[in-house]
Specification:
Distance between the termini: 31 Å
Bound molecules: D-ribose
Number of strands: 5
Structural class: alpha/beta
Strand content: 15-25%
Order of helices and strands: EHEHEHEHEHH
Strand order of the largest sheet: 2-1-3-5-4
Helix content: 40-55%
Shape: globular
Length: about 140
């Protein structure tokens, strides 16, 4: 499966580590950033979210320091459900209940092992539908 991934400078090292750790599981399509030089997270969130929202890709992964800037930016796009995850339990629920199509992680607040568990869980958990679909249908204004 092809999966989009992007980060700002704060998330760059985690992005690179996850790409390597899951190289056999996903075909990563990397939208940057490509170094630890300071950049603006909305530039990367909007580029990635555009291509999930238009159907070019089913899923994306966004990483910044807290995850909040990436989530706030990505969630401006209609049809995007970007969920901030800091544990594998949250990652399971954001798929089961919210049908998240973008996984967001806070690089400065989780160790690599946790990020790795989050990625595994997010991509192996299905949406439950039912009452959760009704709620998702109410998200867009
Ligand atoms: C960068 O210093 C930091 O503000 C950014 O990575 C992110 O945490 C913003 O939400």
């Amino acid at each position: 499966m092809k999966v989009l991934i992007a980060s700002d400078h704060a998330g760059y090292e985690l992005k690179e580590a996850l790409k390597e750790a899951f190289a056999k599981d996903f075909e990563w399509v990397d939208y940057g950033t490509f170094s630890t030089e300071s950049v603006d997270y909305p530039d990367f969130a909007h580029k990635l979210a555009t291509d999930v929202a238009n159907g070019s890709y089913q899923y994306g992964v966004l990483i910044c320091g807290t995850g909040n800037g990436m989530a706030m930016s990505a969630n401006k796009h209609a049809g995007i459900r970007a969920g901030l995850c800091w544990s594998k339990e949250i990652a399971a629920l954001v798929r089961q209940h919210n049908n998240a199509n973008i996984l967001v992680m806070p690089a400065r607040f989780i160790p690599f092992e946790t990020a790795s568990e989050i990625v595994k869980t997010f991509f192996s958990t299905d949406f439950e539908g039912g009452r959760h679909q009704r709620r998702i249908d109410k998200i867009n204004l």
